């Protein structure tokens, strides 16, 4: 049941992507506005994840799980019944907020339900496998529902999972929460949420020009609010994110790499979906299946990287991974409006998946090594938040690039013009991945023996 919860949270990161062209046409979304259907979910999820973990620990994990599950269901129903693009974006943001409460509560419940031994290892293996399958499931299920039912069912299908989760949770789960005196860091939660929101919105406005007063205002407000968050965290007794968790050079480098990887996974895969459907003319289901080489390659690469990690240490793997992903993205940037999927897209997706596999396995270990047990939840939430926030910012930047390339186009863009715009976003993503490789070289210096000693512990750290 708890693994199914993680499936729903991950699945909703991809299931709407396939349905977005149809939703955009029906609701009249502009190209600039449509990215917020994805960004709203990722931004709300990432921004509220730290707070969600604290609420689960302090108020009670079962209570947080039940509230998160019901709220997620209500938000999904709202999104499936909307009549305007604005309402859809609001619904997706609400989904993200409740997912941020649901995900850490589910993982914390898994941790206390299976405290040690073989059962714990098996439970986390199942949890991780289901989470890994969520992206692939979302692509195929989203395509199937969009093609044979309606794009709205990509949201309404969540009600089935929610009903099962609520009934099973009420019967099976036992209440638990953190002991001792616990205080919420309200000021920290407000400043980081508003700061990240202002920053992402500022990047999305950059399509009007980086010198536009509104763009500058929101970007400046985001920076000031995030600086205020750091100042608050350095002074409160029970911070939302203890600064020592992210001050470590190696962990800080891992978080930056995670953010850049998130920008690629969330941002470029969306524009690849548009290329498959709008330019190559694939159906929603065919586009979903055509996107599967990426998650499959990540899954297939993970066991190899797991075996290599104790021998090589994380630095070589986290350097090679972004380089491979960057090469794949440069290859994808060469797409043409009449090109073959098997020649122009499939090889790039496969190589990109291998590169991401080389990143994600060592990154999780490095980011969570050396963290004190009472700060493990905050550290793990920071890793997951970096992925979502990086994706939000990346998607806003890629959309700005996409709109800028099409700025001089009058009327509906041709297939060639769309392909040029998509290619430009892939080039920008490739540069980002090469930057991630440089960051890994400069900041990831953990020794191999430390990786061997701590990797097993790191993979079992809870979110909240």
TrEMBL record:
<protein>
    <submittedName>
        <fullName>MFS transporter</fullName>
    </submittedName>
</protein>
<keyword id="KW-1003">Cell membrane</keyword>
<feature type="transmembrane region" description="Helical">
    <location>
        <begin position="151"/>
        <end position="174"/>
    </location>
</feature>
<feature type="transmembrane region" description="Helical">
    <location>
        <begin position="278"/>
        <end position="305"/>
    </location>
</feature>
<keyword id="KW-0472">Membrane</keyword>
<dbReference type="InterPro" id="IPR005829">
    <property type="entry name" value="Sugar_transporter_CS"/>
</dbReference>
<feature type="transmembrane region" description="Helical">
    <location>
        <begin position="124"/>
        <end position="145"/>
    </location>
</feature>
<keyword id="KW-1133">Transmembrane helix</keyword>
<feature type="transmembrane region" description="Helical">
    <location>
        <begin position="63"/>
        <end position="83"/>
    </location>
</feature>
<feature type="transmembrane region" description="Helical">
    <location>
        <begin position="348"/>
        <end position="368"/>
    </location>
</feature>
<feature type="transmembrane region" description="Helical">
    <location>
        <begin position="35"/>
        <end position="51"/>
    </location>
</feature>
<feature type="transmembrane region" description="Helical">
    <location>
        <begin position="186"/>
        <end position="204"/>
    </location>
</feature>
<feature type="transmembrane region" description="Helical">
    <location>
        <begin position="421"/>
        <end position="444"/>
    </location>
</feature>
<feature type="transmembrane region" description="Helical">
    <location>
        <begin position="210"/>
        <end position="232"/>
    </location>
</feature>
<keyword id="KW-0812">Transmembrane</keyword>
<feature type="domain" description="Major facilitator superfamily (MFS) profile">
    <location>
        <begin position="1"/>
        <end position="448"/>
    </location>
</feature>
<keyword id="KW-0813">Transport</keyword>
<feature type="transmembrane region" description="Helical">
    <location>
        <begin position="89"/>
        <end position="112"/>
    </location>
</feature>
<dbReference type="InterPro" id="IPR020846">
    <property type="entry name" value="MFS_dom"/>
</dbReference>
<dbReference type="InterPro" id="IPR011701">
    <property type="entry name" value="MFS"/>
</dbReference>
<dbReference type="Pfam" id="PF07690">
    <property type="entry name" value="MFS_1"/>
</dbReference>
<feature type="transmembrane region" description="Helical">
    <location>
        <begin position="253"/>
        <end position="272"/>
    </location>
</feature>
<dbReference type="InterPro" id="IPR036259">
    <property type="entry name" value="MFS_trans_sf"/>
</dbReference>
<feature type="transmembrane region" description="Helical">
    <location>
        <begin position="389"/>
        <end position="409"/>
    </location>
</feature>
<feature type="transmembrane region" description="Helical">
    <location>
        <begin position="317"/>
        <end position="336"/>
    </location>
</feature>
């Amino acid at each position: 049941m708890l693994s199914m919860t993680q499936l729903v949270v991950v699945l909703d990161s991809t299931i709407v992507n396939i349905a977005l062209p149809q939703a955009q046409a029906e609701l009249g979304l502009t190209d600039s506005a449509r990215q917020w259907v994805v960004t709203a979910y990722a931004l709300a999820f990432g921004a509220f994840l730290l707070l969600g973990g604290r609420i689960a620990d302090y108020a009670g994990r079962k209570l947080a799980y039940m509230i998160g599950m019901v709220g997620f269901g209500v938000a999904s129903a709202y999104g499936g019944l909307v009549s305007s693009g604005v309402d859809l974006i609001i619904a997706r943001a609400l989904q993200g907020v409740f997912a941020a409460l649901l995900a850490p509560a589910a993982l914390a419940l898994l941790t206390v339900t299976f405290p040690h031994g073989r059962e714990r290892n098996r439970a986390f293996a199942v949890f991780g496998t289901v989470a890994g399958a969520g992206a692939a499931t979302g692509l195929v299920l989203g395509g199937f529902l969009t093609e044979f039912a309606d794009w709205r069912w990509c949201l309404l299908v969540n009600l089935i999972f929610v009903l099962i989760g609520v009934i099973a949770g009420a019967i099976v789960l036992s209440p638990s929460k953190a002991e001792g005196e616990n205080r919420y860091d309200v000021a920290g939660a407000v400043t980081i949420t508003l700061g990240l929101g202002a920053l992402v919105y500022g990047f999305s406005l950059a399509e009007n020009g980086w010198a536009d007063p509104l763009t500058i205002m929101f970007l400046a407000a985001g920076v000031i609010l995030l600086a205020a968050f750091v100042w608050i965290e350095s002074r409160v007794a029970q911070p939302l994110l203890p600064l020592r968790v992210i001050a470590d050079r190696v962990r800080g480098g891992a978080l930056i790499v995670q953010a850049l990887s998130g920008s690629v996974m969330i941002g470029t895969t969306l524009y690849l979906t548009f290329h498959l459907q709008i330019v190559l003319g694939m159906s929603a289901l065919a586009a979903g299946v055509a996107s599967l080489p990426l998650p499959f390659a990540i899954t297939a690469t993970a066991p190899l990287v797991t075996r290599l990690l104790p021998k090589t240490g994380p630095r070589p793997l986290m350097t090679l991974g972004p380089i491979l992903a960057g090469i794949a993205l440069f290859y994808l940037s060469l797409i043409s409006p009449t090109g073959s999927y098997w020649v122009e897209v499939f090889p790039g997706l496969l190589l990109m998946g291998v590169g991401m596999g080389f990143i994600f396995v060592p990154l999780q270990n490095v980011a969570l090594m050396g963290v004190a047990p009472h700060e493990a939840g905050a550290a793990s939430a920071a890793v997951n938040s970096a992925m979502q926030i990086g994706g939000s910012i990346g998607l806003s930047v890629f959309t700005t690039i996409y709109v800028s390339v099409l700025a001089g186009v009058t009327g509906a863009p041709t297939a060639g013009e769309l392909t040029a715009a998509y290619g430009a976003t892939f080039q920008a993503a490739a540069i980002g991945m090469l930057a991630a490789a440089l960051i890994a070289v400069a900041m990831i210096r953990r020794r191999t023996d430390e990786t061997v000693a701590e990797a097993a512990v790191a993979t079992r750290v809870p979110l909240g």
